[in-house]
């Protein structure tokens, strides 16, 4: 018999499954690159998307920051893409769990400032004098969805299932969980978007069903295709392929480029005039949508007519659609399958409404595609079905045992880095790679914790051990893989291995040993109650840690390469370093990030100059130490 504990008198949590019982509504959320939406199971037991106060089902994933600190999200924020683009953030999903190096080739895509700190740390976005993480910005979008759901349903919404692309890595999935927490949501599960889409079509609901399906997902900014195998109600991702910078936005851009050429516009002027560029992009989006019911688009902006017909549009987008078909071929190859082995093809994403897309996908797979369910809504509807399963309202789907509390390790600043999130199916295996923070570090303390709070002091310590014998190397060079293996009996094996040397250490613990139902209940309650404060503390600690690392790196640089710098440069750099050190004691996250940004901008030319000097010297057969 599963053990059930109660929260707030009306909410129950099943410790065997980690799921909420029937008393409380759990919503399904599709957090999209271009648009987001929320769905629930209505009284007729059918999934339904929420349209609050007639604003529409789709909530644009756009956030605007006003001059007085006011924040606008969704439909109203979208208007500011034209009137105030530098303070309007869009496509933030592209940045979740990413470092600047991941997206530096696409930095011109964003009209707002994405901070380059020349490191592997996660990106930040600067708006005015404030710095935001993609987690904070995604949290604002999720909070808007929560508010709309509560207004429409007239009931509190505290728990959700959120979908992510199948190719999202651990860092991106955890960032999505953190965004939900910041929005005041207890994220019961992160579900792959293709899995959710399958559920919306009823595929996988029958535990006796065995099928292999392809999910073709072409949204506004991203494309991915996933090959899934469904057996005994279990979804396995066999392969995934795609392009995180290919979508309906590219169709719009193709139209804009066509108009620029046809009307002999100066592209440099458009880049300089952000407002005109956005107006043109939105007009192109109108044209694209119009081709669903007309063959010619002809409208005016200012004194210029912008004209395009459907055949020209199809010619313009053909190379992009062909790119997606190539991705489908690669996905099949990776899954070691032939086209004839695919039983169903599901279309997801608003851009699949384009007639050419449907035609080419159907021709490639040699079968009609599923597009009966609104492609904008299908993922959210499937997430609502998954939420209904977690609520214990469906007996036709087997719920595997899951871990009731998150498992992770302590990182710099006393933070909890989650390796296995709460509600993960068991048995399971997960891992992450870490490195050293100081030069010559030969030992690494690994402390394992269980709980839902951001600070390890609020969680339960399970084990601690030292990985000894790491070769002495500069900070950042060692590569330490830490893997968690949680078996079906609830035994957790932690393995740490330094990849360059092969140094290895293992330990076993039982996460639930000696913990009562009441303690689990309290830990879950505390994580919800203190979510906002926890995230704020985490972000301050991360800013301090990054700032301390920056001062350490710059001071070492000055010591090592002082002969390449002028006295004035050394003096000014020292002033910037001191300014950052002062900011570190302030407790102001934005001030710390601002000081890091200023120091980084000032010192970047030094590094570039040193690199040029190193190349020049190497060409002469010498080396710089």
TrEMBL record:
<dbReference type="Pfam" id="PF00012">
    <property type="entry name" value="HSP70"/>
</dbReference>
<dbReference type="InterPro" id="IPR013126">
    <property type="entry name" value="Hsp_70_fam"/>
</dbReference>
<comment type="similarity">
    <text>Belongs to the heat shock protein 70 family.</text>
</comment>
<keyword id="KW-0547">Nucleotide-binding</keyword>
<protein>
    <submittedName>
        <fullName>Molecular chaperone HscA</fullName>
    </submittedName>
</protein>
<keyword id="KW-0143">Chaperone</keyword>
<keyword id="KW-0067">ATP-binding</keyword>
<dbReference type="InterPro" id="IPR029047">
    <property type="entry name" value="HSP70_peptide-bd_sf"/>
</dbReference>
<dbReference type="InterPro" id="IPR018181">
    <property type="entry name" value="Heat_shock_70_CS"/>
</dbReference>
<dbReference type="GO" id="GO:0140662">
    <property type="term" value="F:ATP-dependent protein folding chaperone"/>
</dbReference>
<dbReference type="GO" id="GO:0005524">
    <property type="term" value="F:ATP binding"/>
</dbReference>
<dbReference type="InterPro" id="IPR029048">
    <property type="entry name" value="HSP70_C_sf"/>
</dbReference>
<dbReference type="InterPro" id="IPR043129">
    <property type="entry name" value="ATPase_NBD"/>
</dbReference>
